[in-house]
Automatic annotation (TrEMBL):
Residues 211-297 are annotated as: Disordered. The keyword Repeat does not apply. Residues 31-207 form the Flo11 domain. The keyword Signal applies. The lineage of its organism: Eukaryota, Fungi, Dikarya, Ascomycota, Saccharomycotina. This is YIR019Cp-like protein. Residues 1-21 form the signal peptide. PROSITE patterns: FLO11. Residues 260-271 have a biased composition (Basic and acidic residues). SMART domains: Flo11.
Length: 297
């Protein structure tokens, strides 16, 4: 009798956590279960990401993508690591969440009194794992992490009692990712870079497969060219035989044969009258053959 009650409890727990936005254990799906990407690349390492935080008097934070695994289609599970320049005690924090996520969940709550969520114990050194829908690059071998924001709220609600000892500038702010908003001096309006990786975490994407296909195509092209050359030779032989036949056999009716040859005709004796007109590029040869009058016997 205890088994149905236990099952009902587990189902209700999962539904309750999902409704509150709690991250749940993610089971990789698809034909490539849990395939990890070996190469995760910072898409804009030369931009100044401290500039925007300095303008807003926000203490500096950094973000790195530590792992990516392919779930299915364009869905990937990523893990990020966020670290602040200085340590801020948890007592100052009221809420911390990831918002604007292009993925199964648009918001990932990490800490919050109102949400009764306490998944981190340090707002200046934490990791978070969630799913995103990656965007395919112009180069079909790479996909980009979609941009999102991390929302910090210090000294709100009951945490306001510690305001007198606060010394880290702005207390409520959003920090965003992306490589697409900067000026001519490289000052980024975003706070963290964008990242990309191979599509489907295929570590051979764009590798030896493409080179092999190109070599095969080139070889086939060469073979086709040789066949064309043989065809030209056959045509020349046929033309020569046709000309000889016309010179030796009298046709039944008067005919006029006109021929144009790109290459000069080698010298030979020909009893047939031939008028040749020379031009800079070709020779025109006109042959006229008249049917002989039968001699009375």
């Amino acid at each position: 009798m205890q088994r149905p009650f236990l099952l009902a409890y587990l189902v209700l727990s999962l539904l309750f956590n999902s409704a509150l936005g709690f991250p749940t254990a993610l089971v990789p799906r698809g034909s490539s279960e849990g395939t990890s990407c070996n190469s995760i690349v910072n898409g804009c390492p030369n931009l100044d990401f401290n500039w925007h935080m300095n303008q807003q008097t926000i203490m500096q934070y950094t973000l790195d993508v530590t792992s990516v695994s392919w779930v299915q289609d364009n869905t990937y599970q990523i893990t990020i690591h966020v670290k602040g320049k200085e340590n801020i005690d948890l007592k100052y924090l009221w809420s911390l969440k990831i918002i604007g996520v292009t993925g199964p969940k648009g918001t990932v709550q990490l800490y919050g009194y109102n949400e009764n969520t306490y998944l981190i114990d340090n707002p200046t050194d934490f990791t978070a794992t969630f799913e995103v829908y990656a965007t395919q690059d112009v180069n079909s071998c790479q996909v980009w992490m979609p941009n999102f924001q991390i929302q910090f709220e210090y000294l709100q609600g009951s945490a306001a009692q510690y305001a007198s000892s606060w010394k880290w500038g702005t207390t409520s702010f959003d920090l965003s990712t992306g490589c697409n908003n900067y000026d001519n001096q490289g000052h980024s309006q975003t706070d963290f870079p964008g990242f990309y990786w191979n599509i489907d975490c295929d570590n051979n994407c764009g590798g030896t497969k493409s080179s092999t296909t190109t070599s095969t195509s080139t070889s086939e092209s060469s073979t086709t060219t040789s066949s064309t050359s043989e065809s030209s030779t056959t045509t020349s032989t046929t033309t020569s035989e046709s000309s000889t036949s016309s010179s030796t056999t009298a046709p039944a009716t008067p005919t006029t044969t006109s021929c144009s040859k790109e290459k000069p005709t080698p010298p030979h004796h020909d009893t047939t009258p031939c008028t040749k007109k020379k031009t800079t590029t070709s020779k025109t040869c006109t042959k006229k053959t008249t049917t002989p009058v039968p001699t009375p016997s």
